[in-house]
Amino acid sequence: MPGGFPGGSDRSGGGLPPPSPLLEAYHGTWQSLSPMPSPMLWPRGDDELEGLEPLDPPETRHLVPEDRRHRKKKHGHGSSSRHRSTKRVKIYDAEEDARDIYSALTARGEPATGALIDILPYLSEDQMQELRAAYKHLYKMHGRGINVAKHIKLKLPSNSNFAKISHATALGRWESEAHWANYWYQGSSSRRELLIEALMGRPNSEIRAIKAAFRDKRYGDSLTRCMEAELRRDKFRTAVLLALQAGRQDEGEVWSVEERNRDVDALAAAVRRREGGESDILAIVCTRSDAHLREVLRVYERKWQGNFAREVLRKSNNLVGEITAHILNGVINRPARDAMLLHHALLDIMETHNNGSSGATPRSSSLFSSSAAAPPLSATTAPPVSSAERQHRHELLISRLVRLHWDRSHMRRVRVAYREKYGALLEEDVEDATRGDFRAFCLGLVEG
């Protein structure tokens, strides 16, 4: 089959189910971004598409906002790279941060949010795990250490965006992804972007880390068992289970030109079929490496004079198109893709504010610029936004910011891509779209 691996082996556990016209229509993130965003555009030049746009923007351009906020950052949080590089010894004091957070959460009256804002957004993954271990060591209940993420969830209002972003960050890098993969179906909107962005297109090592961090006793702490139980039997379920097998082609594994050309021809045939073909597309896109897919897309465009990702979205206005667009946009330019995902979430939140809330009009922002790739609906034309949809829009922003902040070098590239695409600073758009303690926490994740 087109999704098979060289040598005739099939790592997908019996193959994908036969194409079916019953796959539900789904208007998700990428269907709402029209025309197809710039990461799928090929670079300008006269090399007949022999070279792709670099995966990362030029390192020589850095986004350094002039009005960077000065807020309390302890234990080196947010300190300059020069300062950090001169201290090779372990200087992070996890116990002091644990005490500050515990004091904040157990304060009389409402919990004090300042400590959470000052500490959590600035910790690396290793520091977060140190903090979690210190918290369990220092504070116990019935003889068992207290989980700081669970303590935050218990003490803060469950429906507040500040509680959600604090809790997700305190989970750490991989458990937070497992959280979103397990969270999407529990809300009333059942939006699949949370699951797609948590799992699809990731290296095998990251999938294994997410699976190891998953905790849900109902499914024996098995994310695979959870997805088997919660997803209905269709091609989307099969694609998710395929990703969870962690059998994607490794980046260092180079396939032959013949194998690459077979994938190009298989994708061309699948996207041109009047009915079906989606299973073949998923079998290739979900199992090939970024490097291989990049070559496939380059050859496809040269041979067929078309943009495969756009063609898939035209063919499949459903979850297949959503998965394919997410993976392929990341293949071509991951910083630009992630910049667009942030802009999409901020735009939706700003639309929610305009539609259902009063407030001051923000200063100049890409969220109100007609030059943005996906201009917002005005307050007079936007349809009413339900509370469930409003909650989902904030959850998308939370999941995307938390995910990106763990990799600071990538976040810097995302900020560069954001400014180049939308002509605005990411942190200024975040400030315009959010409010209160939630705003301060989001800015901490962006600025690090």
UniProtKB/TrEMBL annotation:
Q: Which segments show compositional bias classed as Low complexity? A: 32-41, 360-388
Compositional bias ranges of the Basic and acidic residues kind: 58-68
Compositional bias annotation for Basic residues: 69-88
| Gly residues: compositionally biased ranges | 1-15
Keywords for this protein? Annexin, Repeat
* Chain ranges passing through the membrane: none
Q: GO terms for molecular function, please? A: calcium ion binding; calcium-dependent phospholipid binding; phosphatidylserine binding
Q: Supply the InterPro entries for this chain.
A: Annexin_repeat, Annexin_sf
- According to the record, the residues making up region (Disordered) are 1-88, 355-391
GO cellular-component term (any): cytoplasm
Specify the protein name: Annexin
